[in-house]
Specification:
The complex is a heterodimer of chains A (292) and B (267). With 292 residues, chain A is mainly alpha-helical. Helices cover 64% and strands 3% of the residues of chain A. Chain A folds into two domains: 2-198, no CATH class; 199-281, no CATH class. Chain A has helices at residues 2-6, 8-11, 13-20, 29-48, 56-75, 116-139, 142-152, 154-159, 164-190, 200-213, 218-245, 252-270; strands at residues 97-98, 101-102, 107-109, 112-114. In chain A, the strands form two sheets. Chain A has a two-stranded antiparallel ribbon with strand order 1-2. In chain A, strand 1 and strand 2 (101-102) form a beta hairpin. With 267 residues, chain B is an alpha/beta fold. Chain B contains eleven helices and ten strands. In chain B, the strands form two sheets. In chain B, strands 6-7-8-3-9-10 form a six-stranded mixed sheet, sandwiched between helices. In chain B, a hairpin with a 2-residue loop joins strand 1 (4-15) and strand 2 (18-29). In chain B, helix 3 packs across helix 5 (121-141), helix 3 (97-104) packs parallel to helix 6 and helix 5 (121-141) packs across helix 6. The chains are: A mainly alpha (292), B alpha/beta (267). The interface between A and B is large, with 35 and 43 residues.
Chain lengths: 292, 267
């Protein structure tokens, strides 16, 4: 999970490399995705390596820090060799094309126009389902169990013969791989990308989604992500009337943040293990423990 | 002809100014229950942690089943064939009892990331085998009905059993138990004794650290006594019980003016 935060920053630029180089080396999707996954995975492992001894909160702080370092680094990587184009970002990235479809254009299917955004929506939905399936399968595997064991008790996990170092690096790599693929998709969808697309706020929001939903419980994490993504939109309508009541003295965006903060404090007080934590008794399926 | 499973000699370990172990060694025959006893602070657990790779020794020679091994990394030692339990129970608290044992199968199985993601037939077969073996072991230690409960919710005695099942899941040549009877009531101790007896009958070798002298004397084939990091006696339980040094270590000097020492006798 934490590896994900650090590496999208890097991997996102990868398709752009491809898009930028000599006037558009239009790398096809089938090459970009595996490359993005691989590069992100490798960088995730590299970033994970120095943090192996850290646990819990300290690990979170360090990985968030790494995320910032990389953002700043990328922001300044426009000279001496211009790789990322610095804060100006990279534009005109190819849209996603496969099987002859161009998701950047409207699709005319049986007389219905399906807009580009809708097409992307379905593509992303499919990817979300695929990643959920992958996570779920990992959770119920030998590797998932090893991750959980490390989360529960590292020394006992070692005593069971688990190579904790390799398993942790694998977790970092895996998390970063998801980040890499989604980053590549994001870049293609937006058509533009700059290091500023990935501020600390984004990373914090991702952690908040996980904690809010229920750390270590897949359905809970999904619930948290949906809520935190949807909540600002819903609260927009609450903010409007409130603003009218106060003659516009309340800034809508600040009010929205305030309401989110209140909602989160409420959740943490009333449900400290998250909205939908792993079940307590009976047939328990705890945790994808990929945050060692 | 005897068959030596674990042969350790010349083990020393120093923590700063404290010589926790000096020149300790022991030989465990295959199929034995070997006891390691000694008063508090004698270095039993330190010795245990050294042979299982948790602490790096300052010196010492280690051989398992005739092959030398270096106890430098805990997970390597487990692979070599020594599984251990912990004095203060270290289960995977939020995982079910069954999953705890399944983790123990980790080194005896090999499916990787891709197998898990694509659910290949080999992966599925291996998972089924892991689960089946784990259930078998839960029955073996006598807690099959608790398979789906989280380890945290089990009673103390059952947690001890679960830890033994988890250690057995790694198919160890040597099962090392660190004070398994600590904190158990009389009934649980009897059950534990039966379990260890059964493990021995099934051909496994057991190294037992124990405070409860009665349990050790009744169960072990051979005993080593440690005091202040030194080996003071070795032999059958009956021999050790008669050893003057052992009596002194447990009861203090027998010349009358040391009345308080007698009250410090453990267990």
């Amino acid at each position: 999970m934490f590896g994900l935060m650090a590496s999208p920053h890097l991997s996102d630029h990868f398709p752009l490399f491809a898009a930028m180089f000599p006037n558009g080396l239009h790398t096809p999707l089938w090459i970009v995705i595996p490359l993005a996954a691989l590069l992100a995975g490798v960088l995730g492992v590299l970033l994970g390596a120095p943090t192996l001894r850290l646990r819990g909160d300290y690990l979170a702080i360090v990985t968030l820090g790494f995320g910032e370092i990389i953002r700043v680094f990328m922001n300044n990587l426009d000279h001496p060799v211009n790789i990322t184009n610095g804060p100006k970002g990279l534009g005109q990235i190819d849209s996603i094309k496969f099987f002859g479809f161009d998701l950047g254009k409207k699709l005319n299917l049986f007389g219905f126009d399906i807009s580009s955004v809708t097409l992307y929506y379905y593509l992303f939905l499919v990817l979300v389902v695929v990643s959920v399936v992958i996570c779920h399968r990992l959770e119920l595997s030998r590797i998932g169990r090893a991750w959980m064991a490390i989360r529960e008790d590292e020394i006992a996990a070692k005593a069971m013969g688990i190579n904790t170092r390799n398993m942790k690096l694998l977790a970092f790599g895996m998390g970063a791989t998801f980040g890499g693929v989604s980053g590549a998709m994001f870049a293609a969808f937006q058509g533009f990308i700059s290091p500023e697309s990935f501020s600390l706020m984004e990373s914090v929001m991702i952690v908040a989604m996980v904690v809010l939903g229920g750390l270590g419980h897949l359905p809970g994490v999904i619930l948290g992500a949906v809520l935190l993504a949807a909540l600002p939109e819903v609260l927009r309508y609450v903010a409007g009337p409130l603003q009218a009541m106060t003659d516009g003295r309340l800034d809508a965006s600040i009010l929205r943040q305030l309401l989110i903060a209140l909602a989160m404090i409420g959740v943490m007080l009333l449900r400290p293990r998250g909205l939908w934590p792993a079940p307590e008794h009976g047939k328990s399926l705890p945790a994808k423990g990929d945050a060692p | 002809m005897t068959d030596v499973l674990l042969n350790v000699s010349g083990v020393s370990k120093r923590f700063g100014g404290l010589q926790a172990l000096s020149d300790v060694g022991l030989q465990i025959q295959r199929g034995q229950v070997y006891g390691l006893i000694g008063p508090n602070g004698a270095g039993k657990t330190t010795f245990f942690n050294v042979i299982t790779g948790l602490y790096a020794p300052d010196s010492g020679r280690f051989e398992l089943a005739g092959r030398p091994y270096q106890p430098t990394a805990v997970h390597e030692v487990a692979r070599t064939g020594i599984a251990r339990t912990f004095q203060n129970i270290r289960l995977f608290a939020e995982m079910s009892a069954l999953e705890n044992v399944m983790v123990g199968r980790h080194i005896r199985s090999g499916s990787g990331l891709l197998g898990a993601i694509f659910r290949t037939s080999t992966f599925r077969a291996e998972e089924a085998a892991i689960a089946a073996r784990a259930r078998e072991l839960l029955s073996y230690v006598g807690i099959p009905h608790l398979a789906d409960y989280k380890a945290r919710t089990l009673s103390y005695g059952d947690q001890r059993r679960l830890e033994i099942a988890r250690a057995l899941a790694t198919e160890p040549q040597l099962l090392a138990l660190d004070e398994p009877a600590a904190g158990m009531n009389a009934t649980e101790k009897v059950q534990l004794r039966e379990l260890i007896d059964r493990i021995r009958r099934d051909g496994r070798t057991v190294l037992l650290i124990e405070h409860d002298v009665k349990l050790v004397m009744g169960l072990c084939d051979r005993v080593t006594v440690l005091d202040h990091g030194k080996q003071i006696a070795q032999g059958t339980p009956a021999e050790v019980q008669r050893n003057a040094q052992v009596i002194e270590a447990y009861l203090g000097h027998g010349n009358g003016h040391d009345a308080t020492a007698a009250q410090e006798q453990p267990a």
